[in-house]
UniProtKB/TrEMBL annotation:
Gene that encodes it: hemL
Superkingdom of source: Bacteria
Isomerase in keyword set: yes
Name of this chain's protein: Glutamate-1-semialdehyde 2,1-aminomutase
Mitochondrion recorded as keyword: no
One Pfam family named in its UniProt record: Aminotran_3
One GO term describing the cellular component: cytoplasm
Organism: Sulfurimonas sediminis
Lineage: Bacteria, Pseudomonadati, Campylobacterota, Epsilonproteobacteria, Campylobacterales
Alphabetical keyword list: Cytoplasm, Isomerase, Porphyrin biosynthesis, Pyridoxal phosphate
Amino acid sequence: MNTEASQKAFEEAQRLIPGGVDSPVRAFKSVGTTPLFITEGKGAYLKDVDGNEYIDYVQSWGPLLFGHCDEAIEAAVIDAVKHGLSFGAPTLAETELAKLVVGFFDSIDKVRFVSSGTEAVMSAIRLARGFTGRDDIVKFTGCYHGHSDALLVEAGSGAATFGNPSSPGVPADFTKHTLLAQYNNIESVKKCFADSDNIACVIIEPIAGNMGLVPADKEFLHALRKLCDEHGTLLLFDEVMSGFRASVHGAESITGVKPDIVTLGKVIGGGMPVGAFGARAEIMAMLSPEGPVYQAGTLSGNPVAMAAGYTALMKLKNNARVIDVLNERATRLVEGIQSAAAKYNIPMQIATRGSMFGFFFNDKPVKNFSDAAKSDAELFAKFHTGMLERGHYFACSLYETGFISTAITDEMIEKTVEASDAVFKEITNV
Ligand code: PMP
């Protein structure tokens, strides 16, 4: 595979942009290779500046449920663009998208749109604090909730990859209200409640996707709900990644546990920058201008982004089976790779939730971040490079989740599984 043009592009980018990238994890640092500079995405495929093509299992880290350049989303965006890029005034498109979101989520009566997942979570935390009049929050090691100060504590994703979960530049004073618990471990949450009677909310990725894919156990989430109720604490499901990917109706529809606040992102923007947070009316009434909790955004509810999101969610509404179909494919993919690995005595743990998939080179089940961290990172790097060389683009860190889109066919998955066999063969020299 020739990557000369990407290498050259990366050198130039590094002279102008820190690390050559605008978001750390895409730098390919943890796999030790050069990031590919992308020129185009079409359906299931990505094309780089050297003209190489890849089946894309990253899908822009989640948003592209319908693949690249989906016709309907593209047409909606172009139409919106022709009417103006931004007004800073209310539009009908916001209400239409809000109607869809409220219809999909039992726990959401009202929703506010922002421009990123980070913003959604940051605002939702402020809302939870404003509503309860309390300061402390509980988060889980290995869960990533964007890069706002209070949440950059033992976070997953890029923060885990780079081994500096608490970032310099975040004053200790800003994180002193963030209590840490262990994922899937209710005793660790009980300890937080024993340590503080001032907990505004417990924030969790109910289907964690930032330490690899690690879904929470149902019993754990039920116990969490009960604890929150006992202490008058709000339960916040961060579904920026899992929303509309694991299920059309949220993790609450899979687990039977209803959160108080939900944060969304990625898929609801159809590929454009959109985030959102929603809750029952009583909580949302605290938000400015209805209530006293301030939150705002010049480009919030941007008409082009709303058009993309609306079209993506309408596609989902009109074809509710999509997530099940994608889950069958995602399962075929990871089971196929796992069987190929087994031929070469490589142990693998696999998981899927809807169109999300994950795998660990680990001989034990993964329930939390410390389990995930015991996976074979060197083997993962070799696997990633080998797959890339054969035209299969996977997330470049063992702490990330993979994504299937409707553009990825069974034949493509078969090809990817075959390639994985060849890669394992090469790695193990059999
Ligand atoms: N929460 C979760 C669960 C996420 O996965 C992410 C991003 N991967 C975020 C929040 C932050 O979203 P953004 O990158 O759009 O700011």
